[in-house]
Structures are given as C-alpha cells and as structure tokens.
Amino acid sequence: MGHALLGVFGLFLLNTLLYGHAEDPSPVITVSPSWLSAGASVTLNCRVKDPSAGWKFYWYKMVPDPSGNFYYSYELLPGSSSGTEQDSYIVHGQTHTAGYRCRAGRGDPEYQSYTSQSKFVWSSDIHSSASLTVSPDRAQHFTSDSVSLSCEGNSTEWRVRRLLTEGRYRSDCSSYWWGIMTGSTCNIKTDSSSDAVYWCESRSGEISNAVNITVQDGDMILLSPARPVTEGHSVSLSCRLKRRKFDSIVFFYHNEKVIQSDSRWELNISAVSKSDEGFYKCRHSGRESAQSWMSVQANRPKAELRADDRDIPVGGSVTLTCSVKPSSSGWKYFWYRGEKTSEPLSSQLSAGPIRVSEGGVYWCRGGRGEPVYYTESSDPVTIYKISPNKAVVTLQPNWSEVYRGERITLRCEITDGGDTEWEYEWRTTSSEKPPDQNEHSITSVTRSHSGDYRCKGRKKHTQHSSTGWSDPIKLTVSDKPDPVLTVSPSWLSAGASVTLNCSVEDPSAGWKFYWYKMVPDPSDYYRLELLPGSSSGTEQDSYIVRGRTLTAGYQCSAGRGDPEYQSYTSQSKFVWSSDFNSSASLTVSPDRAQHFTSDSVSLSCEGNSTRWRVKRFSAEGRYSSACSSSWGTMTGSTCNIKADSTSDAVYWCESGSGEFSNAVNITVQDGDMILLSPARPVTEGHSVSLSCRFRSQTFDSTVFFYHNEKVIQSDSRWELNISAVSKSDEGFYKCRHSGRESAQSWMSVQAVSRPDSSSFPVLLVVGLVCGIVAFIPLIVLLCYRASKDTCFKSLVQSESSNTDHVVNLDETECSEYSSPPHDAGGSQDVTYSTVQIKRVGKKGKQQTAEERSVYSEVRTRAADDSLLYSQVVIHNKYKKKKGQSAPAAADESVYSEVKPGSSL
Q1: What is the arrangement of strands in the sheet containing 196-202, beginning at the earlier edge strand?
Q2: Mean of per-residue pLDDT scores for the chain
C-alpha cells in the first residue's frame, strides 16, 4: 500500500514538473480601503500561489458596457499594458465607486493566468452624472419596511445592483428574487438576506455612489442617513423600537465609544465636521442595534475638467476647459500636468479654455480670495499626442463573414513603425475586448465577438504619444452555415448526366466542396459515400455525375481554412429515375399514377434482397419518410398506403443491400375525376391506353385529352389509345369533361435497348472485314476443290433493325442458316459475321462433305474501353459415316486487337 501511494505521489510530482499546477492559477485581488474618503488613494494587491516565480501583473478597471447588454468592459490601468513587476498598484485620487480585476503572466511566450474575481471600492460621494437615493433615507430598516432605491443622472437607462456582505457575486434588481425594477427605481423586498451594498450603473458607463443597507429581523434599529452628510450641516440620528417606546437610558456609540447616554432616543449634531465621520450604533435595556457608517463630505466644490478631444493631431492642439459648479464669480483656475504636487502650468481669472499641444495627464482646480480658498481638484484627463504613424486593423483570414466556431486573428499594425516599441490599445463594440497586444487570436468565435474593432499604438517609452485610432474593421459572426444542394434534372432520361450544385452564403471565401452519395443502410438510415474525386474537396461548387440512370440521393458539405472548418451537411436531394433495375424495382397496384382517395393502393418491391423499405418524398416536403403507421403499413416487401389528399408524393424502394428502385410519382385526388395512365415507363413500339374516369358517374359529352397542354383528342371516347408508342409521346397528360379537369401525370417512354449508336457501325464493319480477310485463302482453296455449284451465304443480324439480311447465291440449292450461336447470358452488344460453305453434288444431292461456319465476334473489353477485340471462331463439323465415330470437333479461335481510330 505504501509503495502504491509513493508511486501515485511520484506521478503527481512529475505531472506538476512537466505541466505546472493541476489547475490554472486564479489570482486573488484585494483592495484597501474598501470604503473611500474623498480624494483618498486605493491600493490594489494581486496574489498568486507562487509569488516568486517571475510573474508580471496586469491591472484592470471595470467599466459598465454601453453596448446594451449591461456587461463590463475591462480597461487596463495606466502603465499596466506591459505588466508590472510589483504585485501591488496604487490608484491615486480615486473618488468614485469602482471595480477592479487583475491577472498574471510569465514566460516567453507569455503564459496567462485566469483573471481574478472582481473587487469593488465603495464611495459614498455623490456626483451629478450618476447618484443613488434611498427612500426612506436611512441605512437600517426593519424587515417589514418598504424600501426603494432610485437612480438619477445623465442617462435614461439604469440598473440597480448589489453585493451581499458575505457574497462574492453581484446581482441585478429583477434578475433575481430580491427586487422589482420599474424605470430607474428598484423596490426591494426587505428581509434578513437584504444586508448588502447597493449602487446604480448607467447605460452610458457610469457608477453611482454606494449605499450600505442593513435589514434587521429584531425590534431595534439605528436611524442614520444612508447618503453622506455635508460639512457644516446638521444631522439627527435616532434609536427606534419596532413595537414599544423607550423606558430607560439609551446609549449612542461613535466608533465604539459612548457619546451620549440619557433618556433621549435621538442624537443631534448641529454642525457636522469631518471628525464626526465613522460608525454609529445605539443600545437600550441590553439590546443593541447594528452599526452603520455615517459619511461626511467636504463642503468644498469640486472643479470639473473637460477636453474637446483626448488626442492631439499631428501639428495641432486640443482645448481644455475648467469650471466650478455651482457657478459663481471670482475664481482663478490652476492647470497641472503630471503629479498633483507639480507646479501649475498657468492661471487665469475666467473659465476660458486653454490649448495644449503636449501629451500628458492634466487636472485643474479653482481658487479665490486671499488667502486662496481652493476647490477640490478635478478628475484627471489623459491627453495623447498623435504620432504620424497610422494604425491599421487586419483580419486573418480576410473573410467578409465569419462563422461560429471558426478561428480568426486580429492584428494591429503600425505603418512605418520602424524599431519603435509600441504598446497597443483596442476599442470594440463587442462584449469581448482584446488584450492590449498587437495580435489577438480567437480559437472559436461566437456571436459575442461580433462588432467593430479599432486599435491604436502608444510609444512604449513615451507614454503620452500615440497613433490615432485606426479605421474600424467590422466582424460579423454568423451561425454555422447550412449549404443548399440543388440537382438538375430532378427526373432522369436514360443515360443522362446529373449536375449537383452546392451553394453557401459567401461563395467567394475560399470554400472547398465535398460531394456524397446516399446509400441505404440496413439500420434504416443512410450512409454517405464520397463521390470520386471529392475526398479532398473540389474548388468548383458544382459536380457532374455522368451516365446516371437510376434513382439516387445526394448531399454536400463545404470546408475552408487551415485547420479546415466544416459546415453542416446539406439536406438530402434526390434524382428520380423511372428506369427499371433488375436488382431493385417498384410496382404499383393498380398500375396507374392517379388514384381516388377511396382507392386501395399497394407498392411492392422486388429484386435481389429479402429486406425492403418503401419511402416517399411529398410534393411540398423537405424530408423523406418510410412506410409506417403515419401513412402506410409495411407487410414483407409490400406497403399498403392510406390514399388521401396527403399522399401526393414520389415513392421508391430501398433494399437492405443498398440499392434504389425506380421512382413512381403518385397523385391522389379528392375530387371525382382522374386520369388513368401507367405509373411505370412504356416501352417504345408498345401500345398504351390512357382513360378518363369518374368516381361515380359515366361520361355523357365530349372528353378532351391533353398532351403537354395541347388537345390531342376530343370526342365521346373516354379512352386515348396509342398503338405504337414513340419518344415523342412522352410528356404530361390530362383529361377534361364538362368543365372538370383531372390532375396531369407524366408518362415516361423507355427506349428499346440498343447497342451504342456510335460504336455499332464500327463493330459491324470490323467483324465483317476481319472474318472475310482472315479466311480468303481458305475460301480460294475450297472453291478450287468444290464443284461449280458452291453456295456462299452471309448472314448479318442487327438489333437496330431487328431483321435478317440473307445473300443466297443459289436459292434452289442453298439452305438458309438460322442465326449465329450466342453465349448464354452474353452481351447483346455483339456483331456477328457468318460465312457458311457447303459442298453440293452435280445432281443437286448433297455429298459427304465437311461444313464450316465462321463467326466473327467483336466485343468491347470490359476492363478497358479503349480497346476492341475481334474474335474469330472456326467450328469444324463432320458428318458421321456408317460404322465410324465422328471425330471430335476442333474449334479454333483467333483474336485481333482493334484500336478506335484505326483505319480499316
């Protein structure tokens, strides 16, 4: 057991040495103080598990995002873009409520930790752009009290947020169970869980003063103001019981020291000073209230600094304006750049603006009187001097539209940047702000990354010199694409090619296309097989399937990039063929394309399989479905369908061995007239009968038959007969009677099977020539030996004419030979040339002679269509003599190779 534990511990140590900690480090940020006095500095500390391991620290301020989602964007604090070696950071002169985060990085390339949890610094100072008021205006409340929190300022859209005293996470009014937001006011449900810090956030990105509210479940509270009290003003604090009056001494405490103890339940301060700030509580009869902080704010007004622009253009300047509110006369304004301890740049007696042409951190304050009475200093404003270099945002790959899950890289490039070291800053309308580096890679984009991206560069060793903001590049992230597959034609003629087209929303963005054939699977689904030449994708968005004669289904997909990003697979598209296939065929009973809703219709599958399924594709549908309880009943290899108005569809069979049958287009009529036309193709030369039928009556006037919308018969006959069908008879048929019209159906005409028209004449000539040329010497010899009554007969049989042409030299003495021998099951695309020689006696009697029939057979070699072989077979036949056995016939075969294009 001990050895096993040592082994596991050793593996853990090895894993830690090779890969670091078992989990990525999460830094912990602390802030001090958590509640601010006016103008006080804030110290941030960022702690990691291993503080001595060469970490650099990055410091962020949280800013409510104005994009409309009420999230936060994170802005790097000044001097933090390249990280600080110290694990602490001081924010000077912080006067408003703010949130902060930190993260750490080390190594080259730099390894980044997670970002820390948020920490807030609370300020009770009220400012005009965003403020929170509490009604009733006190910090402590009973659980039965109604409390409302209202936001005011420079925005029309607000949210009220809170952070529980012991909590780590913020929550919004209305998003949880603790409040209801109406306009800019939140009405909270006061209970023991309502102890929290509350504040407002505006859609324009500002944070209000914070208020610490305590809700008591007991029967005594301290009534103290929730908002700061101004120096010199009076204030009253009181102790309140929920159900009875005070009947003994009440003690008031300030910072744990008793400051009043008598029968009064109220503490009055006539002129508040900064020394009155602190924690207060009260006690009566052994019971004690919670303590609340009373904030005292200076009565001095605060200066406000505004800049008409934060960036100084090349060769230009920006305007700074300082003012004091409420406005009054006699103020001088003092301007500073850098630290607040620096000497003022200038002073003037009015609020008139000044122009500056140097970058830096500016602030101002007002003063008047002798000795000078100063206002509070303004918030600092950072001004950057624009360098002549230009920032440009590039997107790689440079696609106009990006899809969810793709990998992209945003780069900030500085033109003519030379050897200057730059720091980078990004501005975006998306909810994902890039880190302040020149390159930002997103391994899997989401919709939250959509937006405009700008960047600028700052010279690393000259903090207040920067480029201007780049032109924006718009990133649009869409859902994963669904390619659309189309097929042409949808119904096949014999031997026709099929063109597949695969379209995506952005066809010019470097897509490759993959083409699949659907193969029925025994599991009742389809497996997809890549079509030839498609395994690596095709650059063309079209694909031709040549010589397609049978029903088939197809799908496509698209991919781009490296590593390749794959789209969804398209919906299935079928190419229908009415041609029969011996391995899989569908028959309809009764054999017609149109049926009444009351008809019983069965679809039967036949072929080389014992397992079948009948499928259909409705006229308006997008998906195929199998014969089932919803529209049919499958029994063995037959599907009995429920003929109703929803049965209009294309039907076909699929075998367990992966084959498709011919397809049949069936229409079911709810009316009282249909056209009876064959569901399967009619063979050329055969007769066919089409008829018009009523559901419940007979025809009593003229019946019109239409072929491709043209009347071809109009009389009292309800039947259209075609004695010998030709290809021109193929098309759409319908009938009309007494203003009522049937649906139209397609009648397919199937050509008689023939050899290939281009190769047949060549095969015929080659067979004849090879047979004759090969046996000229033999014919000469036989003619020399034979009598003058020799008969030469040539029989040529051709499928194209279906006739036998016989040349007979002597019809009285020559018997006609029937036909050349055929191999059982052999190819029909074969041409025979027959030469027959007989010996005849002088008196017309046949003498004993050997008969020779020569067949010249020309075949196309299956393995290579570029070669033709001519086979000459000599059959030796001997007539048996009395008392002698016939010798075995010896057949001789001679092969001659004929290449296409050779001259004969």
Answers
A1: 140-142, 211-216, 196-202, 158-164, 170-172
A2: 78
> What is the rounded (10 degree) CA torsion for 148, 153, 154, 155?
-10
DSSP 736-757: EETTEEPPPEEE-EEPPP---T
Q: Looking at per-residue confidence, does 628 or 114 come out higher?
A: 114
Using alpha carbons, select from 207, 262, 213 the residue that is nearest to residue 239.
Answer: 262
- Which is nearest to 652 in space by CA: 550, 531, 529? 550
pLDDT of residue 280: 95
3-state helix vs strand vs coil in the chain, percent to 5: 5, 45, 50
**529-559 residue pLDDT tens:** 999 999 999 999 999 999 877 888 999 999 9
Give the whole-angstrom CA distance, residue 666 versus residue 616: 10
CB 670 within 8 A of CB 705: no
**DSSP state, residue 345:** S
8 Å CB contact between 375 and 301: yes
Distance CA(354)–CA(335), nearest Å, equals 9
Q: Do 544 and 497 form a contact (C-beta atoms < 8 A)?
A: yes
Segments of 629-768 assigned E as strands: 632-635, 638-642, 649-655, 660-669, 673-676, 682-683, 688-694, 703-707, 710-715, 719-722, 731-737, 740-741, 745-747, 749-750
Distance CA 198, CA 131 (A): 11
| CA 610 vs CA 25, 389, 437, 592, 656: distances in Å | 63, 77, 67, 26, 7
pLDDT, average across residues 454-473: 86
**835 forms bridges with which residues in the sheet?**
794, 854
- Considering only CA atoms, give the Rg of the chain: 49
Q: pLDDT per residue over 820-862, tens digit each?
A: 443 434 434 444 444 444 444 444 444 443 444 444 444 443 3
Q: Please give the Cα distance from 754 to 801 (Å, whole number).
A: 10
CA distance 750 to 684: 6
Residue 629: φ, ψ to 5°: -65, -20
Q: Report the C-alpha gap between 463 and 421 in whole angstroms.
A: 11
Is the preceding omega at residue 489 within 30 degrees of 0, hence cis? yes
C-alpha span between 39 and 53 (Å, rounded): 35
Measured distance CA(328)–CA(314) in Å, rounded: 37
Whole-Å CA distances, 260 to 224, 270, 282, 285, 880: 15, 15, 9, 15, 151
Q: Hey, what are 339's tokens?
A: 């630290």
pLDDT of 339 reads 65
pLDDT, tens only, 234-284 = 999 999 888 777 778 999 999 999 999 998 899 999 989 888 989 999 999
C-alpha–C-alpha distance, residues 528 and 514, integer Å: 11
Closest CA to 553 of 570, 535, 568, 572: 572
Q: Give the distance, in angstroms, between the CA of residue 581 and the centroid of all CA atoms in the same chain.
A: 40
